[in-house]
Design a protein that fits this description.
six-stranded mixed β-sheet; tt1808, chain A; 4 helices; 12 strands; 188 residues
């Protein structure tokens, strides 16, 4: 795993609050990183995915339940602050969702919806942080290329398990009990 600079003690939560409302701010590798809010295509993909997974995995309707899934939670992990598009925790690790504005427990699964602006950040600094925090699975969803990449963290590195494309119907870890229809993520 690549080494990273230590967190910048001069960066504060106030720095994030001072950003214009059209930007998402994250503190990664000792730097304040900003990107535009997700576009409608990225938001649609994230919303469709969360909607599809929510019933079977959060409430147990048509699936096993056992998960807490959140849209764009603020994560404070190891001195860094990230905002994944979707994050999930297994109920055995998070039996009850706390009433907080930030989560400090690393998720078990993260989904980043890529855009031209965020792809390098999502694949780079954020994947490094997720690895350091031992997040078990990361999904990278790309509405432009209509792909889903599924990664598992094992043996101290990311393993690419699969790349699914277009309108495929797939079973993807850690939600492999559900056949996910990728076409629903791209439907405008």
């Amino acid at each position: 795993m690549r080494s990273r600079p230590p967190p910048n003690p001069d960066l504060t939560y106030t720095d994030l609050g001072a950003l214009p409302s059209n930007l998402v701010g994250e503190m990664l590798g000792g730097e304040l990183v900003t990107s535009s809010r997700p576009g409608t295509v990225q938001t649609l993909a994230a919303t469709a995915l969360l909607s599809t997974l929510g019933g079977p995995f959060m409430s147990g309707k048509g699936g096993p339940g056992g998960w807490v899934l959140l849209f764009a939670p603020e994560l404070h992990l190891g001195g860094e602050m990230l905002v994944p598009d979707i994050a999930g925790w297994r109920r055995e690790r998070l039996p009850e969702l706390p009433d907080v504005t930030v989560m400090t427990l690393p998720p078990d699964w993260v989904c980043e919806v890529l855009s031209d602006e965020t792809e390098a950040l999502d694949r780079g600094s954020k994947m490094l942080t997720y690895a350091r925090e031992q997040v078990e699975h990361v999904w990278l969803v790309n509405p432009d290329t209509r792909t889903l990449e599924v990664y598992r963290f094992e043996d101290a590195c990311w393993s690419l398990l699969a790349v699914h494309e277009d309108a495929a119907k797939v079973r993807a870890e850690p939600f492999q009990t559900l056949k996910l229809e990728l076409g629903s993520l791209w439907k405008r």
